[in-house]
């Protein structure tokens, strides 16, 4: 009896030893390296991307991702084609322009469900009850920018002729708006409105935001893109990247992780005060998850089609590109 | 002189374009990254007149800014040649201000002066002013001993005469610096328009950049190159005329 027990023990030890040996023999797979080019500088609009890097979402999915800041002179689509990046963030108009010129890119997820571009105005001075109230107003636009396209689409939708408004060329200096020379000024609702709104409130002035989406203009903003080649040749990498990224975004936007998300932004962007980032985070959440049942990253095909139609109507592209064929959603929970 | 400048520009421009096309076709890049020759041609036909007007607008500001900076540099150079503390202060101030990149100063100028003509003019002048000033201070501070000694010995020397002697003796250098700074004047104007103005070719380039339209940018660069060459040839000719007149007198 004792001998049998002893033999069993020996077998168990031998099995355990073999298992350990087997585990040691397996080489650990090195993390796959990819580059992810953002649309803009590190700020609240990229909180999920920063979270993925900072909280190990990419690493847990076997990826080593270089998350690179964007900027006015950076174009993720061009970098994807040249091969300097494998994933990137681009606005819908960039994507549609690129597709119109034969760029082999595909859209994997739509970050903003509501375009963050809004127009700030003072309701006391510039009451806007209906879109028709835009007549006679001085409206800020960035010539050549998204806001110009959106505003022109808005004016066309409500049959307001360009001569009936005064378009004012805007840059980074808000002085003309503060001085009241311009009635409506374009800004990003999540990133800039908390800063500008705060200044107006301190000066004792009320402000409101005009949302083009509420007035029927759906113009898609930032989306995650890659190349068709990447999707065909490295589908597993794309899948793991998207899984990590979407998971990170959901975690970063979860109200329970509010403090951690703010700390992540502040770690990468020390220029913006914490109290501002605290206001920016919920504003970002509303744009990315506008309804309680909103699914993060979902591609709004109808909005993409409308974006293409707007660009076609304004002759920003020569012919239809059938953008819906380039939408390859990689959103799964 | 004119044809040499122009064909030199053509060689450089078309070499650059050829390199771009080589990259495009070797790497199989789409027209979004690098436009095709046909797209550049079509874009050129479409925007040529508008861009030409913009380049002429830019050039007019550049010429004004250049003149302004020559006047400023001459005045400050004359004062800066003095060995007393005012001259020393001006020299040190000029060197220190030169250290600030214009892109950092430009937003302040635009906030204070708005994005109209005055801002563009000032930034243009600032960009081409410093190289001029440094040369002018150097030229006006360096005595021409063999000539000045005579006037000093006969007690007939005054500051006007001193400046005239030094300018006359260094007219070749002055001409070269003025011609050289002509390019900077155009660059300065384009930079100022790119940063914040609402007119000129720099503004058009910025808009094309917003739309990732490299074809428009290449057309703009072509026109800028042609106009810059023309302006520099004019300056060189003017310099030669002035030199010849001075030598004949």
CATH class of the largest domain in chain A: Alpha Beta
Number of structurally distinct domains of chain A: 2
Order of helices and strands of chain A: HEHHEHEHEEEHEHEHEEHHHHH
Largest β sheet strand count, sense and barrel closure of chain A: 5 strands, mixed
Can you say what the CATH homologous superfamily of chain B is?
MetI-like
Which word captures the global form of chain B? elongated
How far apart are the first and last residues' alpha carbons of chain B, in Å?
A: 25 Å
Molecular structure report:
The complex is a heterodimer of chains A (333) and B (249). With 333 residues, chain A is an alpha/beta fold. Chain A has two domains: 32-113 and 219-326, D-Maltodextrin-Binding Protein, domain 2, CATH 3.40.190; 117-210, 3-Layer(aba) Sandwich (D-Maltodextrin-Binding Protein, domain 2), CATH 3.40.190. Chain A has helices at residues 2-25, 47-54, 57-60, 76-82, 92-100, 146-157, 175-178, 193-202, 228-233, 235-253, 258-268, 274-288, 301-313, and strands at residues 32-37, 63-68, 87-91, 105-110, 117-121, 138-141, 166-169, 185-188, 208-210, 222-227. In chain A, the strands form three sheets. In chain A, strands 2-1-3-10-4 form a five-stranded mixed sheet, sandwiched between helices. Chain A has a three-stranded antiparallel sheet with strand order 8-5-9, with no helix packed on it. In chain A, helix 6 links the parallel strand 6 (138-141) and strand 7 (166-169). The mean pLDDT of chain A is 90. Chain B has 249 residues and is mostly helical. Chain B has one domain (2-248): MetI-like (MetI-like fold, Orthogonal Bundle). In chain B, 85% of the residues lie in helices and 0% in strands. Chain B contains ten helices and no strands. Chain B has helices at 2-27, 37-80, 85-98, 102-113, 117-141, 145-153, 159-169, 171-195, 200-210, 214-248. In chain B, helix 1 runs antiparallel to helix 10 (214-248), helix 2 crosses helix 5 and helix 9 runs antiparallel to helix 10. The longest helix of chain B is centred in the first third of the chain and has 44 residues, at 37-80. Chain B is elongated, with a radius of gyration of 22 Å. At the A-B interface, helix 4 and helix 5 of A face helix 4 and helix 9 of B.
